[in-house]
Design goal:
- The protein is of the alpha/beta class and 516 residues long.
- The longest helix has 20 residues.
- It contains 15 helices and 20 strands.
- A hairpin with a 4-residue loop joins strand 8 and strand 9.
- It has a nine-stranded mixed β-sheet, sandwiched between helices. Strands 12-11-10-13-14 form a five-stranded parallel β-sheet, with helices on both faces.
């Protein structure tokens, strides 16, 4: 039976996934769907409430995304946020125009009616605004619930339909009481039961895998050492035991100790059939002389598939390929439940590999967000350090070595990265950071080591630490100067090829998180 769900209809907001995650934090299942989803599709998904997201467009623009008007006739509670409020009000007779005063950032909300969605919220509450349009007029069927100094209709509700609108964003942490507002919508307005539990999801997923995989059939899982593939492997092993075979492709581009960690966890602890394909020389030969980052990725992706194909031939009765595809991957690839999400990109976990190998695909995590996968990993017995480790790019250190990749430069970066992560962990900063890593730059700088001038074969290394909730936007972490000093001192003292160490203080955007 499908769980009761909240549909989040995406109009292109950078916060859409955050809305869906906030709903799940209240133990209510959520789905992200495109604007073209129909009432019938919503009913099939056991929808008990709808949230219309924000978005960058103006509702009165010619090509503005628009949901089906009939959604507001389903007698299902609807919450419109920012653009979602404007389009809901427009459908129900309101007028939306450019605002005389654009409103971006924190502002004070003055509540005039605490009923319903604003129950238990402070009279003067801080909220986060991000809009250039405003609901200018409301019909007699609407009631205003709150205002800000420049927005007379900051929160509204329809008198006869279950529609409420918020011009501000309750899903972001900059709205301190936003969590209470969302809870009011879920439990007081939608009457949700709050029965979404990861434990139940795990049990249902394991049972589904057991019923799908035949008793004489095997499943192959590609292990990378990251949390997604690790949790996928743990779930499959719980479901089908020794009929699971894992392949770890050693491309020579991993962090220090990566192979040993994977082997000790899955071969020694879980007793999983683990095949390690030693292919470092093969990858490094193909990458010799290559400096363009896109060419690096293409070469690594092609060689990975070839090595994986060769290794998989030694596994008899292998019919299925398990992948750690997450819900954001599915959304970005246009494969959401309604089949209507915009095809933003073809994600590496969603397309390509199964077709090339002739396997059927098993994706036990495709309904989960990253934080849910981490929690599931701990429930399955993965070591805490593995379940909560920082993301690591598919091409490995190849995109953290600027310029040509050589065995010598790989060794240098592995040693630098090991020192940095060791110091960050010892100082208690690792769980406070979303992603931390080092980069080796293809430039030499003058330095003094001992009494001698150093320049030839002396590299610059950089440390990048970011904080983010969704990896779509990120800011640099204000790490203690003392910690930075310790890392720099150790790197320059212990890695003789480095004579300068820098800290990256750029945000995303305009920079990306990875350097290549």
């Amino acid at each position: 039976m499908k769980p009761e769900s909240i549909a989040v209809i995406d109009f292109g907001s950078q916060y859409t996934q955050l809305i869906a995650r906030r709903v799940r934090e209240h133990n209510v299942h959520s789905l992200i769907l495109g604007p073209g989803v129909t009432p019938d599709q919503l009913r099939e998904s056991n929808i008990v409430g709808i949230i219309l997201s924000g978005g960058p467009s103006s509702v009165y623009a010619d090509n503005a995304p628009r949901c089906c008007d009939d959604i507001l006739d389903m007698n299902v509670p609807v919450l419109g946020i920012c653009y979602g409020m404007q389009i809901g009000c427009q459908i129900l007779g309101g007028d939306v125009t450019p605002s005389a005063t654009r409103e971006f950032g924190r502002t004070q909300l003055d509540i005039t009616n605490h009923a319903g969605i604003l129950a238990h919220v402070s009279q003067k509450s801080t909220v986060w605004m991000s809009h250039g349009d405003v609901v200018n007029t409301l019909g007699d069927e609407f009631e205003s619930l709150a205002r800000t100094p420049t927005c007379p209709y900051a929160a509204v509700k329809h008198k006869t339909r279950p529609f409420v609108g918020l011009q501000f964003h309750p899903e972001v942490t900059h709205t301190p009481e936003g969590n209470m507002i969302l809870r009011n919508f879920l439990y007081d307005i939608c009457q949700c039961k709050g029965d979404w539990r990861l434990g139940d999801f795990l049990a249902d997923t394991i049972e589904g895998i057991r019923s799908r995989i035949g008793s004489d059939e095997r499943v192959i899982c590609g292990l990378s050492g990251g949390v997604d593939s690790s949790v996928t492997a743990a779930i499959l092993h719980e479901a089908i035991g020794d009929r699971l075979a894992c392949i770890f492709v050693d491309n020579g581009l991993m962090r220090s100790g990566e192979i040993e960690l994977v082997e000790s966890t899955f071969r020694d602890h879980f007793k999983i059939d683990l095949r390690v394909a030693r292919a470092a020389d093969r990858f490094l030969t193909k990458l010799r002389g290559v400096t363009d980052p896109q060419k690096k990725r293409t070469i690594i992706g092609h060689e990975f598939i070839e090595v994986f194909k060769e290794e998989s031939r030694s596994i008899p009765n292998a019919k299925y390929l398990a992948q750690g595809t997450l819900y954001p991957d599915v959304i970005e690839s246009g494969h959401s439940v309604g089949g209507v999400a915009a095809n933003i990109k073809l994600h590496h976990n969603v397309g390509g590999l199964p077709e090339k190998l002739g396997f059927e695909l098993v994706e036990p995590l495709r309904e989960l967000f990253k934080d849910e996968v981490r929690q599931l990993g701990e429930q399955l017995g993965l070591p805490h350090d593995m379940a909560w480790r920082h993301p690591f790019p598919g091409p490995g250190l190849a995109v953290r070595i600027m310029g040509e990749i050589t065995p010598e430069r790989l060794d240098i970066l592995q040693r630098i990265d090991h020192i940095a992560l060791e110091e960050i962990t010892a100082a208690g900063w690792y769980p406070k950071i979303a992603q931390a890593f080092t980069v080796l730059l293809p430039i030499s700088t003058v330095g003094v080591q001992g009494d001698d001038r150093s320049y030839q074969n002396q590299y610059v290394a950089a440390l990048r630490c970011v904080e983010t909730s969704d990896f779509m936007t990120a800011d640099w972490v204000h790490v203690d100067y003392e910690l930075l000093a310790r890392i720099s001192t150790r790197v320059i003292n212990e890695v003789k090829e480095v004579n300068r160490f820098v800290y990256d203080i750029s945000s995303k955007p305009p920079a990306t998180i990875e350097w290549e």
